[in-house]
Write a structure and sequence with these properties.
alpha/beta; 8-stranded parallel beta barrel; 8 strands; 41% helix; 15% strand; binds 4-methyl-5-hydroxyethylthiazole phosphate; magnesium; ThiamineP_synth_TenI; transferase
């Protein structure tokens, strides 16, 4: 399989839903089904935080979520856990700066999608060298979801990257809602990645529909 093209990936990143069991108030499979009904474009399984599943339970949930994605032609990525991604034959993985070195991960996963969280120009150039397919940049806004999140950085880093000619697909993350998603796209991101504003929405499909409207209201 060839590496995914930049253009296809930019489309897939538009409304990128990230979730694990700890982010849900109803069963994660139901949350994912409703998010897909609303129109998410990509999904990442991120089973992290207090009370997160491990071992067989984690594998079983990942498999269930992957099947729902497959049935609906939604790319399914795994956060951090390369072994799980390979065991499931996931579509890709997302890693942070504290995870396995990106070059090693690229070798392990072959042509699967590789997303890397970056916070500076130096990290971005290193990630490009290592074979990243897209960057996750954040936290853009205040978030309560990631306890060890870096300070809120707004959209400055995204704007700087674009001003310096970085053409890598970019997705913003952290505190993104239907109300502020357009700001992230206007700054130069291709899409938004969202946990709480979808997983804990009063109406999950409506939240996704509103996020999509906000993302597509900006023509870059
Ligand atoms: N990385 C930076 S902020 C964040 C991650 C995983 C959490 C985003 O969650 P939310 O609920 O969309 O703010």
């Amino acid at each position: 399989m060839a590496r995914i093209s930049k253009e296809n990936l930019k489309d897939a990143l538009k409304v990128y839903f990230i979730m694990g069991s700890v982010n849900c108030t109803i069963h994660p499979t139901e949350v994912l089904r409703q998010a897909i009904a609303g129109g998410i474009t990509m999904f990442q399984f991120r089973e992290k935080g207090k009370g997160a599943l491990i071992g067989d339970e984690k594998y079983k949930l990942a498999k269930e979520l992957q099947w729902i994605c497959r049935d609906n032609q939604i790319p399914f990525l795994v956060n951090d856990d390369i072994e799980l991604a390979m065991a499931l034959d996931a579509d890709g993985v997302h890693i942070g700066q504290e995870d396995e070195p990106a070059e090693y991960v690229r070798k392990q996963i072959g042509d699967k999608i590789l997303g890397i969280s970056v916070h500076s120009y130096e990290e971005a150039t290193a990630a490009i060298q290592s074979g990243a397919d897209y960057f996750g940049i954040g936290p853009i806004f205040l978030t309560e979801t990631k306890e060890d999140a870096k300070p809120v950085q707004g959209t400055t880093v995204i704007q700087e990257f674009r001003a310096n000619g970085i053409t890598m697909p970019i997705v913003g993350i952290g505190g993104i809602t239907p109300e502020n998603a357009a700001i992230v796209i206007s700054a130069g991101a291709d899409g938004v990645s969202v946990i709480t504003a979808i997983s804990k929405a009063a109406s999950i499909p409506d939240a996704v529909i509103e996020l999509k409207k906000s993302v597509f209201s900006v023509k870059n």
